[in-house]
Fold each of these.
Amino acid sequence: MPDRRARGRGEPDRAVIELTRVSREFPGQPPVRALREVSLRVDQGDYLAIVGPPGSGKSPLLNVVVLLDRPTSGSYLLNGVETTTLPDGARTRLRGDRIGFVFQSFHLLSHRSVVENVMLAEVYGRRGRKGRRERALAALERVGLGHRAGFAPNRLSGGERQRAAIARALLGGASLLLCDEPTGNLDSRNTEAAPLARRGTSRPSSCWSRR
Ligand SMILES: Nc1ncnc2c1ncn2[C@@H]1O[C@H](COP(=O)(O)OP(=O)(O)OP(=O)(O)O)[C@@H](O)[C@H]1O
Ligand SMILES: [Mg+2]
């Protein structure tokens, strides 16, 4: 990685994500410190894979970055905005506008068709309804799932569900794409078809990239 401290004076700050000493502790007996003072910076155009054994805190870290969870302590700047103190509504809008996310367990709505699930990505964003179905169908084509658009998610294989979730993440026009084990269920050909894991390891545990 380039040495970011070498950035010249007057050059714009290209940080998309800046975490400073972020901790997340889950209460209980005993409490679990899933994240301990994590500091991390991701610039525009960066592609990053996070790897670690089960239970090492990858999903808790992604949940914080995607604004679904708040750290117990520390600072998280998204495009220069301090997010830890923002009210829930502002965090939801920021997420809808800026972030696409593929969950480890997909989170597809069972009572909606595949294409409707993909369309939901735009509901909290800025784009209008016009052309939404066409954009969703194009995203499904992009991951090789156009022929399953009308299916219910529970009729899809694990790999197909994963691709539907990837299509949904691609749709929102997000500047930041976060993926929690996005390609674990895909064969190597479809791993390449899903335009996520093109660099780095072919099966990253977690990754994010700014397109
Ligand atoms: N919502 C939660 N409530 C309470 N504790 C949690 C929660 N999420 C995570 N933890 C704790 O944090 C630890 C690390 O989280 P997690 O197991 O999700 O990490 P991971 O690296 O994503 O693992 P995996 O590779 O299995 O997905 C867990 O073992 C658990 O103890
Ligand atoms: Mg996980």
Amino acid sequence: MKLLYLVLLLVPACVQGESDCNRLNMTSRADWGAEPPRARTPLTHPTTKVVIHHSDSYWRHLSNWGGYSDREEYMARVREIQQEHMGKGWDDIGYNFLIDGYGNVYVGRGWDNTGAHTPCCNSVSIGINFLGYFEDELPTRAALEAGKTLISCGNELEKIGPGWDFSLFCHSDLGAASGETDCPGAALCDYASRNFQYPWDVLQLVTVNEADWSHLGQVRTSAFLISPQLLLQEEPGNTHTTTRIRNKVTMDIENADQYAKNREGQQKVAVDLINRYITWQEGDVVLDVGCGTGEITKLMSQQPGVKSVVGIDLSLDFISFASENNAGANVSFHAADASDPAHFKPEWKGAFTKATCFTVLHWIQDKKTAFKNISSCLESGGELVINCLLESAAQIGQLDLPKWRGYLKDFTYSIYPWPNDDIGGMGRLLEEAGFEVLTCNGQPAPPKSFPTDPEGLKAVMRTMLPQLKYIPTDKQDDYLTDAYCAIAEMRKNFKEGDPEAVVAHARKV
Ligand SMILES: C[S@@+](CC[C@H](N)C(=O)[O-])C[C@H]1O[C@@H](n2cnc3c(N)ncnc32)[C@H](O)[C@@H]1O
Ligand SMILES: [Zn+2]
């Protein structure tokens, strides 16, 4: 009942769901020092197109070698672009918005005025310019995220649409006044076409280098596509096909910042398992499967004797966050689906002395293949520690709220918790994958693993509920409240100390 009580507390505390617009770091015209426009032409909404641009030529890029060094430099470039454009006799800076490497969005002509950026289409499009040159390299993660959020915001404000039925173009798709253009560069064009148009069905589709597809630092145009579900597919003739992925969703793996901020519970669980089952040895080489945003991976790399740790995860967004925030001389991160043998690098075979898989397995349907893959990476005698939520504790997968069915008809949960009445079965599965089982039992979560204040709990739920994307932003709080009440009802029979997860410690034979 404690949970239900909290839910009741939560209702008056509810605030409007966070809008994508609120997440943007907007720099107003006054703040970047814009000249007033000579004239304005109102834009009719919703515009049916979004056009992506970049600001710099190859030559400019070369002469600007280190790239932009700070915010001031970006801002100066925005002013310079305005001067160039007005110098040509235009009314104002041509673009509706510009985005810098820090993810700041500069208001050009804004949502409501017709731009001057793509001759065919100014009156039916929003032109977004990424500051820099992006033929071979992508803009920073912050810039890409800002681009995606800006488009979602425009969509939310009904400036772009109708619904998500608008088209996204690269400037080069539509032609320039001078004829052809390379703008916005192949790397950005490719990324934008795959990522900016769909809020949820095409989740992060990127093209990556064949030789080292799993390393994000190497993202390049080539023969493989990887989505968060890492559908690895060859692209015939190198023409990119966009694969729509609906319905197969795990937790919300698109928002690394959100997860990183709200993973206190997972942290406690992992630290508890490490303390109880792992004895570090000199020269340990560790594989952290489903490493998320990498905090635990890094923590393990700092333990006495540990030589190095490799973290793998399904989510490109999490891996990218981990690489930026939790990498180190002896820690590296790679995108990989633990249940797909093709994602395991040949050099990982037998290379690890320990493997961990904390709070991940209930998201993986084919656990046996995942265990086999992990086993193949361990040396003989290498140890594995895992936990997997039990069915009785994975209520989020059982949520079916009649009031919300209309929004969720295309959504199915993909959560695969372990049956409460077959704890021993987990041990048998490990044995079939080549392990000797040292411990395998049902265990409660460590005390106070999850926040008790309503806002904190709501934030944790947000990281777990991918279906929120199907719910209109202004209704998400309402949905979360209903989800709470339903979960609290399901948890009524749950007693303090009841097992939440099956925990196993095993050794490779
Ligand atoms: C609850 S998080 C736990 C992350 C991390 N171990 C921690 O304790 O913070 C679950 C993670 O499993 C990852 N995941 C889900 N399915 C996966 C799969 N098939 N292969 C690899 N990672 C997967 C998700 O992307 C997510 O990062
Ligand atoms: Zn352009």
